[in-house]
Design goal:
The structure holds three protein chains of three kinds. By secondary structure, chain A is an all-alpha fold. Helix content of chain A is about 75%, strand content about 0%. Chain A folds into two domains: about 40 residues; about 230 residues, MetI-like fold. Chain A has twelve helices and no strands. Chain B is mainly α. Chain B is built from 14 helices and no strands. In chain B, helix 13 crosses helix 14. The longest helix of chain B is centred in the last third of the chain and has 36 residues. The radius of gyration of chain B is 24 Å and the shape is globular. Chain B starts with a helix and ends with a helix. Chain C is of the alpha+beta class. In chain C, strand 1, helix 2 and strand 2 form a beta-alpha-beta unit. Chain C has two domains: about 160 residues, D-Maltodextrin-Binding Protein, domain 2; about 210 residues, Periplasmic binding protein-like II (D-Maltodextrin-Binding Protein, domain 2, 3-Layer(aba) Sandwich), CATH 3.40.190.10. In chain C, about 50% of the residues lie in helices and about 15% in strands. Chain C has 17 helices and 13 strands. In chain C, strands 7, 8, 9, 10, 12 and 13 form a six-stranded mixed sheet that branches. The chains are: A mainly alpha, B mainly alpha, C alpha+beta. Chains A and B meet through helix 1, helix 3, helix 4, helix 5 and helix 6 of A and helix 1, helix 2, helix 5, helix 6 and helix 7 of B.
Amino acid sequence: MPRHRDCYGVIMKKKSIVEFSFLFPALALFILFVLYPFIEGIPISFTNWDGLSDNVKYVGFRNYVRMFSDRHFVNATSNTLIFMVIEVVFSNLLGLFFALLIAKPSRSNNIIRTMIFTPFCLSLLLSAYVWKYIYSDFFYGVLGIPSPLGDKKWVMAGLANIAVWRDAGYCMVVYIAAIQGISKEYYEVGDIEGCNIIQRFRYITLPMIGPAITANVTLLLSWGMKVFDYPMAATSGGPGRSSETVAMLIYGNLFTYFKAGYGQAIAIVFTISIFLLSFIVSYNLRKREVEL
Amino acid sequence: MMKSRGKNVGKFFHTILKWLIGIICISPMYVAIIYSLKSKQELAVNRFALPEVLYWENFSQGIVQSNFFNALKNSFITTSLATIILTVICSMASYIIARKNNSKFYNSVYFIFVAAMIIPFQSILTPLYINLLRWGLVNSLIGFVLAKSGFQVAFTVLIITGFVKSIPRELEEAANIDGAGLYRTYWQIIFPLMKPVIFTSVVLNALNIWNDFQISVTILQKQSVRTLPLTQYFFFGENNSELGLAFAVFVLSMIPVLTLYLSLQKYIISGITSGAVKG
Amino acid sequence: MKNKAMKCLLLVMAFAMLFTSVVVAETQTIQLMHYMGEKTKRDGLDALVKLFEEQNPGIKIEVEGVDAATYMTTYQTRMTSNDEPDFYFGKPRNMLELVLAGKFLDITDEAFLDNLLPELVEECSVDGRVFGFPMDAQVKATFYNKNLFAEHGVEVPRTLDEFIEVLDYFNSKEILPLIHGYNNVNCVFHELDAFLTAQVVVENEADLWVKAQSGDIKLAESEVMKEAMSIYAKQADYFDVGDFSLDQPTAIADFAAGKRPMFTNGGWIMGDVLVAAPEGTEFGMFPTPWSNEEENNKLWVGIDDVFLISAKTDKKDACLKFLEFLATDEAADIWMNYSKLMSSNVNAKTEDKAPYIQAIAAEIEGGNVVAKALVPDLTAEYSRSFRAMLQSFAISADKNVDEFLNDLDSELEYIRE
């Protein structure tokens, strides 16, 4: 009898090793190049290391405390949040709108879909440069509307516009897929009941694409919070510091201000807050999904 | 009579609107194309107007100065390698995570992947660089491939896991009874069924890796290993007013990416249905 | 017989060892890192390296160009990971923290420095020790479009009052007088630095920035600073809202096309301006006036391209040999031809060079210059914050000088904590 159990144990162990071998390469790559460096960076945040010298002093939580009364941190955080909200809201609204317009599979719809998705194929930096010149040379040069990138109040909106131009295409493609996955039966029932377009959308389409909305909002939220390339390329944080984002502030502290310890501390608080924010948002959206 | 005419008018506006949106979305490319065809003099006088002379030297000079074909080769090698690696290892990892969704271990791994997508690159730049140096991976294409793949693992696993959950388990159970091992079951039965999401992840990863800047600028410093985004950034520098060259190289580097997207686009829709949606 | 054979063999072996050790020992590869964006300069460096390698078989130089916007990151990453090149590039005082951390080799006592203009060597020094080798002399001034001046019968202003007259004159003709590349913080700064340097030297407050950074003085209490900011504000008032988003490359292009007659910036723009300008346009320069006494308006002269040796290099002699080579008249000539800049070499021959280089040489010879070396700038975060605030000031509708200086003082104090 014990033999039988041993045999079973061995087979199960072999099976779980084989199963783990499926996960292992991905996990190893991830730990080596992402998780491990991140953990290595944590101790630095408790020091006053300047990024250069060998003498490093442990300063406990001072970096963390200072952060919250640092006006540059507050400024960067508010800039980042403004950007993120505009990006998430408008990319999704426009993406959904476009998807509704061209969800039906057809030759011309495919072409238009490609046109709308093409911006997403460009790199972030190049998108920023293209738009920098559109704002200056077209909006102002031709139409006489001053470029938002030169105005402290409008610069984050101007930058967010670039992000929306790119990301709306991505959102649209996801929504098209979701819409095409809705079974026709639901719409047939709706037609029988005499629904108009708005009711069709609200009671059939919208609930069925709930998971897609959750996924898109969560993903774009993290993209928006981490924004770095657009302001770096188009404004270098200007005018003044009105387009400086948290990612840029981290970068500056690490490499230009010789305050590596402080920079790492900001990075850790930043990572944790995005995580919490995503968690809260996606939890609420999932609850809504179920209800609908 | 009235009703059908109203419907026709509605359809007409619908068509106009969607074409208008498509054109507006793609119109910013006008800047890139026009600027790439102008000489420095023309760029000084009136940037936005159509070029009077098609200044092809921007392209020829741009290719020479940015070491274009070498960078193209590097971009091509790194993107293909990284995409293949990611496709193989992430599809396998997603499969096992999706199937073992009652195991605490695999669920926590999934959770960590989701959480880590948020880590900003700035915070791990220095430790990562030191490690890469220690392992001899700096200034090597393979170093970049490995580091970038490490970063893309989380996103890829996310997309694919959702899709795998929708594949019925009966197929594997049948294979099990027939005595097939896990590897055979996976590669011969499951993987072929994952085609739509695989194509989706291939396109999304390829786009991301081809356009990568932050990781490549850290690891690939020597001229000989630079990828396309690195050579282009050079032209947009502060004391380097080579707008024409910059946009010419930009236009050229767009071609491979767009070609890839255009050829695989129809797979993306079906792939995303269960993948990125269930995230 | 056996003995003789043995002796022969030993001799041959000895020769072989000597030969290989000589060959092996002499092939050194120096790694040189720089961030020069301009193609002309990179070509010039390649030419110099080639000539040096020909004259010094056994030393090879590997050149690595990095991105100018992120060079500090690259340098620090290399330093932290102990993977340093032998040569660095940049202005020592802009990398003050690195200098003070002992990252660069002290070359104060090298003889070849005597070949170079003392003002430029001085600017490469920190606390009296020299850390950098300056290749050329750069200027900051107000560059002007000669054709536009001639067309309107405007004379080159030599005093502050004359300058304001010229500004007002163009303005009254609906032509904005100055190009403002306000999207770029450095552009914003050059407009001030071009005349402020001369002003603080003449008024004996050359250590203004150093004292402000350490908290020894308050800028709001400095009469010189207040006066300077008023002059700056006046120039910034001739603007168009499009200037706030005008970056350096397009500013240069606009100036070249003759959209506005004047541009206060550094000499590095002239290469591109000359290429992009329509046929027959001529440009000149004059020191940006701040005073009504002509001799106080001196031309800003400073370093541009500077090489530094890493303190950790194990090929010190080879590196110094390269610098020695760069200090020769031959190397200076090559550099001037490629980069179109005034060489740092005291013996530089400018007869056959571009008129722009000759103009600078003339000013230096006439003694009508002020060395940037005398006025060290703010560093690191102080510099970044200051330039960002200056940018805000330049684009604000209501330019209150006292408020600006008070805010600046409190920001510097904030960073000090």
